[in-house]
Amino acid sequence: MYIVKKGSQDDSASIDYDIDEFENYVAFAKEQEGFEPTVYEDSAGVRTIGYGHTGEMVDKMLYSGDESFLGITEEAGEQLLRKDLSNTFDVLRQKMANDGNLEKFDALDPNAKMMLLDYEYNLSSGVRGFPKMLNAVLNNDWEAVSKRNKVTGRAEYERFYRAFFGLTDKT
Predict the structure, then answer these.
(1) pTM to 2 decimal places
(2) pLDDT values of the chain reduced to their tens digit, one per residue, 171 residues
(3) How many CB atoms lie within 10 A of CB 19?
(4) Distance of alpha carbon 99 from its chain centroid, rounded?
(5) From CA 115, how far away is CA 90, in angstroms rounded?
(6) Fewer CB within 10 Å: C terminus or N terminus of the chain?
């Protein structure tokens, strides 16, 4: 089953992602991000709330002057996460289309797509900030992906990518 964008007239954006794949990533992101009901600064100093939500809403909460604001519920945090991930996937797909890589992206294993989604969601430069790694993923060159993770400082994620995506040393 796929999520279809309502009213989309652009075939390249009409089928986005498999619901099961998306649910797996939501669960994974919740576990990795952890939930925080109040505004905090993440490891990069970015104001954040919920499951890694950043942006204008966080600033509005922080500077609203409403002293009764105590935070958000876990349910609200999950709703923000789902919206953020869906929006991030849309941006990622559009980048792939703009770069002429949509066909390669759509043909990727679901786990490889989710790896790119993770880069896009968690890194301010997104996947374009790591062109060699992106090219390696699009070409299913997992040896090069492993090397790129180490070079880009994402080596700490190598173990979780391998475990989450079921990759072996031979893939």
Answers:
(1) 0.74
(2) 223 333 334 444 444 567 788 888 899 889 888 999 988 888 888 888 999 898 777 777 666 666 666 788 999 999 999 999 999 999 999 999 999 999 999 999 887 888 888 888 888 778 888 888 899 899 988 888 777 666 555 554 554 455 445 554 444
(3) 11
(4) 19
(5) 15
(6) N
Q: Residue 38: phi, psi to the nearest 5? A: -120, 165
Centroid of chain to Cα 96: 14
β-strands 2-4, 36-41 pairing: unpaired
State residue 3 phi and psi, 5-degree precision: -85, 125
Contact status, residue 129 vs residue 121, Cβ threshold 8 Å: no
Token digits of residue 120: 């896009």
Torsion sign over Cα 51, 52, 57, 59:
positive
Residue 66 neighbours by CB distance under 10 Å: 9
Which is nearest to 91 in space by CA: 123, 60, 61?
A: 123
